Each structure stands twice: as structure tokens, then as C-alpha cells.
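Example record

The entry below shows one chain as it appears in the dataset: sequence first, then C-alpha cells.
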Amino acid sequence: MTAFSKLNPKKVLFIATRQIGDVLVTTPLISKARELWPNAEFHFLGYRGKLEMLKGNPDIAQTIETSDRPRLKEYLSLFFRLFQRYDLAVVTQPSDRAYIYGLVAARQRVGVLGGHPQGLTAEDKNKKSKSEKQNAWKKAICLSTVDVDYFAQHVITEKLRLLEVFYQSKQALFSGPISVTPPAGDPITPSIAAQLHSPYVVVHPGPLTAYKRWPLSYWQTLLTWMVKQGWRVVLSASPAKQDLQLNQDILSLLDEETLSKVVNTAGLLTIPQAGTLIQGALAYVGVDTSITHLAAACNTPTIALFGPTPPSNFGPWPNGFIGEQPYQLRARTQTVGNVTILQGPGECVPCRKAGCEDHASSRSECLEQLEPIQVIEALQSATQKSTR
């Protein structure tokens, strides 16, 4: 680690040019930075349409949006807007573009470096060696950098470690409770709110990629069981075409009695409205996706279905946890705080590949072997705790 820095910035730019979940997991970093620099002005740079997770965040004075694929004119406009306006840039993604934004914007930088964990195949080691060469210029322009570890290091720990250089000891950085800050909630559309008879459970079946999906028939079994408990089920989904279709496919499998107790909000809620919905729920069940992280941040009992992704890297953070790692790499069921993570069986779990065929549309055998009874038992346990 670089020697302790006494930098006391007046203006700080946080950079997270990825998805909405990647923005949400920066909020503990922002909160910790506020403790360090109570009088500093914080800005946040991210992709257009991905910053709703920061709505109402008390520590962010300004958000700056850019296209994920900007044209030259937009690049130039952004560079002129950013040029040396900040004392420090905190680069939370390892992409070249994020580092270039940080280099343009600030006098000093700290950043996350991509790479591949050691101890894997010869091919992985070759990739790691190549990435180290590609990362050399990023290290050269930074006060301090943090290496990604996709298996052993939680992503929130990774982000927090960007502040290590400003602490006299690593222990001080992780000595207190760590929490994710959800966006400020917005009122739910009255036509949907009128259908939310308590108690209800929010179910979010759709991940960003198909290899994180749970089988349709399993959702049918789970939703049917939920309705028999006297609960209303609220189906959630993004406006993406494949997520809307997934919800319709699930609904098509339900009998009339079950269907009458299901509210389909697919594509109808903003992120702040989804937060409001989840905060009022008895529990939440979802796959490995950003809304599952939001559910955990809302302190709602959260059941997360994980396949290829290591929970030790990207499991939803249990708010108030003290320490660097809440989760084991592999466990059929593990509960920490308000979050329960479920995984299927197999020595290959988690592989961190894109499913068994390693492409976005692949199946994942580990999720096919994560049976509904495992989710039902976890949900029973979580709801019993929440009603005590």
C-alpha cells in the first residue's frame, strides 16, 4: 500500500461508468469519504440513465451523466466541463475510459485495477500478466490502486479500500458498521398502490443476462406456494423487452386463483419507486441483479438466488455489517443480517463464467439444481424473523 496521504480535497469526483448496481455499491465508499472530508464537495460521474440509485443521496452535490458510447463532440464537451476541476478523482471501475476521465478531471487519483485472481489456469495467469502490463500506466497516475479479486474480495470492500491511502491503518477503515444507502423513495403510482394489500412479497425474476435465470417452473411453484400463505405477490421487472417477456411467461403458467393474487409491475416503476415498493414488503426474492442489492439496502428480508457469481464478491451487502467479508465463497444457504444467499450444488460453484457454456444466453446447471423447496424454507425463516 502507498504511504499514508494527508491530502485534504475540497472537490472530489467519483466515477462509476457501468450499470445501476455498480453505482449503488459505491454508496458506502461515499459515506466513508464524507467522514474523512466533512466539508468537501462531492460530484458523481456515470452513464446516462444509470444514476437513479443516487437520488436524494445527501453526500452528492451534483451528478454528471455521459453516454456509454459518446461521440467526439460529447467527449470534448465533457472534457472541457471536467478539466482539472477536482482535487481528487475516485475511479471505481477499472476501464481505460474511467481512468481517462479521472486523469482529465483531477490533480490526484485513486482507482480500481482489473485483473485475474491467482491460482487458476495457465490461461488465466497469462491474462493476468497481460492485464498487469496494461495497468502500468494507471498505477503511474494514481496515489494508490486496489486490485480486483473476483472470488475472495467483496466489491464493497474493494471500493472502500480506495480510501486506504488516507487512513493510518486498514483496521480503522473497517472498524465500524458499513451500510449501503438506497435512493430516496418516490410515491408508487396510485393504480399500483391500490393493489398492494399487505402482506406482500416482491419477486424480481429477471437478471441482466440469461445465464443468471432461475427455471420458469420453479417460479410457478414458488408463487403458488406464496399465495397459499395468504400473501399477495408483486412481480417486478425492468422495462427491458426480455424481462417483460419473462414475467409474462411466468404468469402464463399460473392457475386462475394464484394469478388473481399477483400484481405485475413489470416496467412500470422507476428505481426510487421500486425502493418504496420493497421497503413496504414482507420479504423480497430475486436473482443476481441490481434490484436485489437495492432490496438488501432497504433492510427488507432478502432472498438472493446465486448461480455462477461468487457471493463473496458480489453478494448483496447486509447493512450494518462490520468487517471486510460477510460471505463464504460456497454454501447452499448462508444468512447474514437481513440477507440470505442460496446457491445450487456442485464443486464448480461458483465458476464466475457466463453459465455452463460461458456465453450470455447459456444455461446454468447450478441454478437448475437450486430447487424451490430451498427458497421456500429460506423465505419461511426470513418472514418468521421479520414478524417476531
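Notes for this example: Residues 122-140 form the longest helix (19 residues). Residues 11-173 form a domain with the Rossmann fold fold (CATH 3.40.50.2000).
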